[in-house]
Amino acid sequence: MTTKHVLLFLIFLTSKTLWGQINNQLLETNIAVNDSLQQKVLLNVQSNNFFKNNEYFNLIATGYTLMGSQLATQLAYLPNPYVRIQAGVFMQKDFGNDTMLLARPLLTCKLQKNGYSVLFGTLEGHLSHRLIEPLYNYERYISHPIESGIQIKIDKKNIWSDTWINWEKMQYIGSADQEQFSVGHHTDVKLFNTKHSTLTLPLQMLVSHKGGQIDIDTTPLKTIANMAIGITYEYKSQDENNFMKSFKTENYLTLFKDLSPTKRLTFNQGTGFYLNATFVSKFDIAASLGYWQAADYLASRGGYLFQSEASIYGTPGFIQPEKKLLFIRLLYAHKVFNAIDVNVRFEPFLDLIANTFEYNYAVYFTYKNDFTLFNYMKRK
């Protein structure tokens, strides 16, 4: 990395300019374990209705539309305040496709106490990992809606951490396909935390692997690593009449490295800067700006626009080693009728190298709730 790059990164870390990335908290999944649910049998219902239209015309990713509904229903039992066992089914229907309905089983065992939790089975995955988009494509919660494996989380006053392994494809003796999994980690350490302000040091990592020893596929194994380190600052107003509800700035240095024994990717390593901030009004309307600059950057699970090589929606073989993108976002996130989380987004961006203007817009309706079916404690 050159001295010029380091200076550029430090300038943006100390800048008061507004830069921002998407807030996905309303779309996160959290499996509740607490005293009030002890000895209860619950019906958990999660519904997500999505519409995202990408008006893209570039060679990295051309335009496409995602529209449909997801529904997860599960039965859960909490034998004590620290354990939750649940099972159910996930279904996804893409609108305009009358021949295919995605259906997958859901199985989870979660142990939680004093801010520490361990999950086996279906994970609190995707957007709940809170990774930045250059590491994790937010559309994967639509295209790859289920994550299964092991997850360890910490949620304390000054530290939030999520470590997981997502086992994506199992192989058996003589399998025609290689095994595939990804390992991720995200830690936020609060350097100081007051009623108004929070300064946080985030560290994020995602490693994907494709290989194995008992399959008949002779393709060389592939391991790709991505990492991000940065600093974030958030200010929250304590006056409900104040027009500004909150302001947050997030700034990251990202790294890419091909760890495969046999190098077959277009690039072996690369770097990027992701510089962000968001202003949120008391009406839950947010305005964001974001800047992405990268060189020779690839990410196996990252957002398509951030990469230096064409995606599955792009022109095969096209590469753009240097990236400079400016994102301008308007967002509305609010719970309506005390039930439905509504998320509306308009996200134009400028490619400062190709001198093009493109955009996407999206609407999400999300519902999540636990209903008590039986209470064994009251019956006793």
| Helix/strand order | HEEEEEHEEEEEEEEEEEH
Q: Regions with pLDDT < 50 over 5+ consecutive residues?
A: 1-20
Q: Mean pLDDT, as a whole number?
A: 90
Count of individual beta strands: 16
Strand content: over 45%
Structural class: mainly beta
Tally of contiguous helical segments: 3
Describe, in short, the structure shown.
This protein has 380 residues and is mostly beta strands. It has three helices and 16 strands.
Task: Chart the SSEs and their pairings.
Blueprint: H1 3-14, E1 40-57, E2 62-80, E3 83-94, E4 102-113, E5 116-122, H2 140-143, E6 148-155, E7 159-169, E8 179-193, E9 197-211, E10 222-236, E11 244-258, E12 269-281, E13 285-295, E14 322-336, E15 340-351, E16 356-375, H3 376-379
Account of the protein in words:
- This protein has 380 residues and is mainly beta.
- The chain has one domain (3-28, 112-362): Porin, CATH 2.40.160.
- Helices cover 5% and strands 57% of the residues.
- The protein has 3 helices and 16 strands.
- The chain has helices at residues 3-14, 140-143, 376-379, and strands at residues 40-57, 62-80, 83-94, 102-113, 116-122, 148-155, 159-169, 179-193, 197-211, 222-236, 244-258, 269-281, 285-295, 322-336, 340-351, 356-375.
- It has a 16-stranded antiparallel β-barrel.
- A hairpin with a 2-residue loop joins strand 2 (62-80) and strand 3.
- It is globular.
- The N and C termini lie far apart (66 Å).
- The model is unreliable at 1-20 (pLDDT under 50).
